[in-house]
Amino acid sequence: MTDRPRRVVLAYSGGLDTSVILKWLQQTYGCEVVTFTADLGQGEELEPARAKAEMMGVRPEHIFIDDLREEFVLDYVFPMMRANALYEGLYLLGTSIARPLIAKRQIEIAREVGADAVAHGATGKGNDQVRFELGYYALAPEIRVIAPWREWDLTSRTALIDFAEKNQIPIPKDKRGESPFSTDANLLHTSAEGKVLEDPWEEVPDYVYSRTDHLMAAPDSPEEITVEFKRGDAVAVNGEALSPAALLAKLNELGKRHGIGRLDLVENRFVGMKSRGMYETPGGTILHTAHRGIEQLTLDRGAAHLKDELMPRYAELIYNGLWFSPEREMLQAAIDHSQAHVEGTMRMKLYKGGVHITGRQSRMSLYSEKVVTFEDDAGAYDQRDAEGFIKLNALRLRLLARRDRSR
Fold this sequence. Notes:
By secondary structure, this protein is an alpha/beta fold. Helix content is 40%, strand content 19%. The longest helix is centred in the C-terminal third of the chain and has 21 residues, at 385-405.
């Protein structure tokens, strides 16, 4: 094969797919492979990936296993939460927001080790191939990208297992059977799609859920919590100051036992097809509700409504893999500017899958009890001013009505 890459950085989990890809790259391109495994809080033991990569001939100094949990939450999840981002009004973008960080670190490693190519294990039908590769090209426009699922003839799980057996790639016994669905997990969420979930009429089986307890098993009494914010970011839970990753982990723990954050969604993929997925985002759901609640006190109406207009576009950019685009950065600058005074404490009750706001307070509050009261406001608001306000806003409506009546 001509134009062989000399060294490739592979996004590597140590599972069946990426282990096969590792060997396939070695055989097909005759290149050196560098593996990169990101710890984004997926809850799996990652050291076995190191041993497996070494066994397959990767040099120890070319095996990267990086703990990116704090960076993930601080620099990716929190900025997205400031925007209240929801794709198609529902999806909290748990998979989408992880891809730019993985792509960024892959490119950094490629520069460190002098690699001339990067590779990923995303299929040619999904969104992740787009997200990874837009990230690569935004950060390293000359980089070569290898996407094995778009090149090889291994088109089934059986073919992958056969390839693994022929090349003495170890496969755990519990991984040999046909997986009933595929998953992706990180500190923000767990997603499941495919196989048993492909018929949108069929209810999601209970065994698919891993991050949230069933509502029937959730406590029969609500649990009250508080979340504190500064400049739009959560900084404490129940009065305890926590790092970004620790805070999200704490909210995940609280949300899990109350069955919070389940979403059964049929979404529009960027590549054009509809797909059905199940998402569990316990801590993110609590955080989203809390952030909107504190904004209700502290954001001016014009700023709040403009943010709500920008949000669908912002969410779509993340979903489509355009985190590193100038338009996302422009929107982020506007969103971050709006958060300067978004601080205070939210009080909420968690109960049977629900997050219920019970109180808000902020020293930056724009809410005035003196102005809004139904009791005597001691001159804080002159109700007679409303007459002129209404007449001015009604002027065009009255002119329209007179014209139409005279026909």
